[in-house]
C-alpha cells in the first residue's frame, strides 16, 4: 500500500468523533421530520442549526487536538512516537526504530544523555525521504488532514449503497432518504473542512515565517 493511500485511510486520526456523530444524528432526525411535515415547525429549523453548530464545534476541537499532538511530536526526543507518526508499513517502522535505537546507544556511549541522544538521532534521520512519508505537512508539522478525504470517500460510497438499497428494496423510504441526505451533507462538509484546515495551516505557517525570518 502506497504512503498516499495510508494517509487517506488513516481514519483513526479523527478526534472527538462522538461529537461529529452526535451532530450527524441530530441532522438526520431533523431531516426526517423535515420530510414528514408539510409546513416545517420552528423547532426543525432550530434543530438543523444546532446540528450545524455542533459540526463546527467538532471542526475546531479536531483541529486543536492535532495541533496539540504535533506540538508533542515537535519535541522529537521519543523514538517510538516519532516512528509511529510515519506513514510506513509496520515492518519498515520496526526496522527504522531498531536502527535509531542502536544509533542512540552509540551516542550514549559517547557521553550524551538518553534524551540528547534520541533527539540527535531523530534529527539526523529526519530527512526529506522520511518527511515525505510522514502524515505531517511541512507547515510546522501540522497534520496533513488527508484522513478527511478518506472519510469523504467512505461517505460517498455509503450514499451509493443506500441509494441502491432504497431503489431495490425500500422505495420512497423516508428513513433511507434521511440517511442519504446526512451522508451527502457531511461528505461535502468533510471535504470542505479539509480545504479549510489547509488554508489555516498555510496562514499560520506564513505568520510564523514573517515573525521568525
From TrEMBL:
Highest taxon, organism lineage: Bacteria
InterPro entries: Perm_prefix_1
Protein's UniProt keywords contain Transmembrane helix: yes
Keywords annotated in UniProt: Membrane, Transmembrane, Transmembrane helix
Transmembrane segments annotated in the record for this chain: 16-33, 45-65, 144-163, 183-200
Database matches in NCBIfam families: perm_prefix_1
Name of the protein described by the UniProt record: Permease prefix domain 1-containing protein
Amino acid at each position: 500500500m502506497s504512503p498516499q493511500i495510508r494517509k487517506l485511510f488513516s481514519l483513526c486520526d479523527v478526534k472527538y468523533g462522538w461529537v461529529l456523530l452526535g451532530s450527524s444524528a441530530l441532522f438526520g432526525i431533523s431531516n426526517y421530520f423535515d420530510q414528514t411535515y408539510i409546513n416545517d415547525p420552528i423547532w426543525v429549523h432550530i434543530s438543523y442549526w444546532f446540528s450545524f453548530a455542533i459540526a463546527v464545534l467538532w471542526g475546531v476541537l479536531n483541529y486543536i487536538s492535532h495541533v496539540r499532538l504535533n506540538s508533542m511530536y515537535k519535541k522529537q526526543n521519543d523514538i517510538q512516537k516519532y516512528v509511529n507518526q510515519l506513514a510506513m508499513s509496520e515492518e519498515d517502522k520496526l526496522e527504522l526504530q531498531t536502527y535509531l535505537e542502536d544509533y542512540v546507544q552509540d551516542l550514549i556511549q559517547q557521553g550524551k544523555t538518553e534524551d540528547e541522544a534520541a533527539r540527535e538521532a531523530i534529527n539526523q534521520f529526519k530527512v526529506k525521504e522520511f518527511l515525505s512519508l510522514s502524515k505531517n505537512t511541512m507547515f510546522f508539522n501540522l497534520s496533513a488532514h488527508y484522513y478527511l478525504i478518506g472519510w469523504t470517500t467512505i461517505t460517498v460510497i455509503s450514499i451509493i449503497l443506500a441509494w441502491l438499497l432504497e431503489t431495490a428494496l425500500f422505495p420512497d423510504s423516508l428513513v433511507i432518504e434521511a440517511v442519504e441526505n446526512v451522508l451527502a451533507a457531511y461528505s461535502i462538509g468533510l471535504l470542505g473542512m479539509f480545504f479549510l484546515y489547509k488554508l489555516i495551516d498555510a496562514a499560520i505557517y506564513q505568520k510564523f515565517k514573517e515573525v521568525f525570518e
